[in-house]
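Attaching the record inline, Q. Sequence:
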Amino acid sequence: MRTDSSPGTLPAREHLPATAAGTPVLDVVIPVYNEEKDLRRCVLGLREHLARTFPYAFRVTIADNASTDGTPLIAAELAARHPDVTNVRLERKGRGHALRTVWSASDAPVLAYMDVDLSTDLNALLPLVAPLISGHSDLAIGSRLSRTSRVVRGPKREFVSRAYNLILRGSLQARFSDAQCGFKAIRREVAQVLLPLVEDTGWFFDTEMLVLAERAGLRIHEVPVDWVDDPDSTVHIVRTATDDLKGVWRVGRALTTGSLPLDRLARPFGDDPRDREITDVPKGLARQLVGFCVVGGLSTLFYLLLYSLFRQFGGSQAANALALLLSALANTAANRRLTFGVRGRGGAVRHQAQGLVVFAIGLALTSGSLAALNAATTSPAHPTEIAVLVVANLAATVLRFLLFRAWVFPDRRDPAPVPSPTTAAYAEPTTISTGDPR
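Structure, as predicted:
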């Protein structure tokens, strides 16, 4: 599994501005291998559709995967006749290799690809790339498995497609619905970071790209498509399925061992509200509240179990004090590690001592509530005692969080240092490796 370093943190997703005439916003790549029959019809039909419906400048790129028939001549003729058509000749087969090579060299901010047979209705092309142009999404895929998609194909291909996606969901926890539909798009700055991590150069390229993007937290937009199966397709189903299963195993193993630097693909994006500077709200407050509530809930259950146990052997005050002491020690240790992220043994004794002070305050609240209950009723029922203690513990919990955050585990982290020239050098883009042919 490739572990190349990537160009660095992704920039903010922004709406792409209208560009000057002749500067393409969209580059649609058509990977072909021995497609002399369909190539001309596909390119001319795609050009006509884009000229009629697409409001930005575009380019159609023919990626010839070492064809041996008349495909290279037709591609060269189309490129010579139409200024918005380019032809790239590759001496190595592999759809993934073709897409990686062309996308890596393209200057268009939105990169797409589609199959030469035009199985997918072109009316889905604008909805496919619109979320990328607007800055809403990072990748977009056409889905033949959406409820609103209209698909015409044989039962064999239908079964293989759905079975494959079930495998992806079960083994790689994929949430996208259709990995192998030949109708996808990606923003260029995302491709520059993502492609160096994608190892496959064949048909599994799409799946690997989507799985890594999803695991890294990138936004994938799905578009229902109308799709008609090409009866003359040259795809070898059994061999492709075998290669895909090998790819699933390889990617799953890499994700399990953590050998992929997916953090290089993660946010911050400047358009994420979580990354904005918000005044008057302490950093990490939301996450700490969630962690504290989880620990507090478990501690409360632990406390109630201890109290019920100790109550069988003594009075309510003694049972409350002992149960609260033991649960307070466990609560402080859990909050230290899980809520406030303090690791190591340094300061552990001091934290426990301060936690005992907080415990004393909680003891005063709960003991006072029990004293008040006993003063009001000489022999309160056990469920009543439990209810009173729950209310008292809720009040103590709020105070405990405030004291933990401000006094026991204050955030004393220094501001993030300004990157030095040496550090910045590691963020420079690296050469994209296309990998070995399959």
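The CA atoms of residues 112 and 185 lie 4 Å apart. The chain is about 50% helix and 10% strand.

More tomorrow.
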